[in-house]
């Protein structure tokens, strides 16, 4: 009987251990499912991380290219602005030189005009003086001619004066 008792106890123990084993296996199965789900989640997250990493790499490269392009454009714009500024300064200097030359020419033309006006006025005055002298000489000569006529008339008579001034008759 002792053996039977012992056998029953062992049987109970085996049954208890079987239940524990089943519970452990069920728990193990549950844990395996959890682990599988977590591994799947980890794998999904790794795939997403790799996708995001590639996307980030692409975006970083695009950003670097955009920054480089922006730098090139800024450099190009600065160079164009500097070139335009230099060209504008050159044009300003040319225009200032041209203005200076024009002002100089204008001053020279004014001086030439003033000199020409002075010479013209001087010559005009000379011509007026000579005309006046010529008029005076003409008047003197006319007076002298009148005097000679009067003298001739008084010496030779009036008829001789008028006959000598008449045109010859066609007959």
Automatic annotation (TrEMBL):
<dbReference type="GO" id="GO:1902017">
    <property type="term" value="P:regulation of cilium assembly"/>
</dbReference>
<keyword id="KW-0969">Cilium</keyword>
<keyword id="KW-0206">Cytoskeleton</keyword>
<feature type="compositionally biased region" description="Basic and acidic residues">
    <location>
        <begin position="71"/>
        <end position="88"/>
    </location>
</feature>
<dbReference type="GO" id="GO:0030154">
    <property type="term" value="P:cell differentiation"/>
</dbReference>
<keyword id="KW-0966">Cell projection</keyword>
<keyword id="KW-0175">Coiled coil</keyword>
<keyword id="KW-0217">Developmental protein</keyword>
<dbReference type="GO" id="GO:0007283">
    <property type="term" value="P:spermatogenesis"/>
</dbReference>
<dbReference type="GO" id="GO:0005814">
    <property type="term" value="C:centriole"/>
</dbReference>
<dbReference type="GO" id="GO:0005874">
    <property type="term" value="C:microtubule"/>
</dbReference>
<comment type="similarity">
    <text>Belongs to the ODF2 family.</text>
</comment>
<keyword id="KW-0744">Spermatogenesis</keyword>
<keyword id="KW-0493">Microtubule</keyword>
<dbReference type="GO" id="GO:0000922">
    <property type="term" value="C:spindle pole"/>
</dbReference>
<dbReference type="GO" id="GO:0005813">
    <property type="term" value="C:centrosome"/>
</dbReference>
<dbReference type="GO" id="GO:0031514">
    <property type="term" value="C:motile cilium"/>
</dbReference>
<keyword id="KW-0963">Cytoplasm</keyword>
<keyword id="KW-0282">Flagellum</keyword>
<protein>
    <recommendedName>
        <fullName>Outer dense fiber protein 2</fullName>
    </recommendedName>
</protein>
<feature type="compositionally biased region" description="Basic and acidic residues">
    <location>
        <begin position="111"/>
        <end position="133"/>
    </location>
</feature>
<keyword id="KW-0221">Differentiation</keyword>
<dbReference type="InterPro" id="IPR026099">
    <property type="entry name" value="Odf2-rel"/>
</dbReference>
<feature type="region of interest" description="Disordered">
    <location>
        <begin position="71"/>
        <end position="136"/>
    </location>
</feature>
């Amino acid at each position: 009987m002792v053996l039977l008792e012992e056998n029953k106890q062992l049987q109970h123990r085996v049954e208890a251990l079987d239940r524990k084993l089943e519970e452990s296996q069920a728990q193990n199965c549950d844990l395996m499912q959890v682990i599988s789900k977590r591994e799947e989640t980890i794998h999904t997250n790794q795939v997403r991380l790799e996708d995001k990493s590639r996307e980030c790499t692409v975006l970083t490269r695009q950003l670097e290219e955009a920054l480089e392009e922006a730098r090139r454009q800024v450099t190009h714009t600065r160079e164009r602005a500097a070139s335009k500024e230099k060209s504008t300064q050159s044009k300003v200097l040319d225009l200032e030189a041209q203005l200076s030359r024009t002002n100089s020419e204008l001053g020279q033309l004014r001086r030439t005009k003033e000199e020409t006006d002075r010479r013209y006025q001087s010559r005009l005055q000379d011509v007026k003086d000579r005309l006046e002298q010529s008029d005076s000489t003409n008047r003197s000569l006319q007076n002298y001619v009148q005097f000679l006529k009067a003298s001739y008339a008084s010496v030779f008579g009036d008829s001789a004066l008028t006959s000598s001034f008449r045109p010859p008759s066609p007959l």
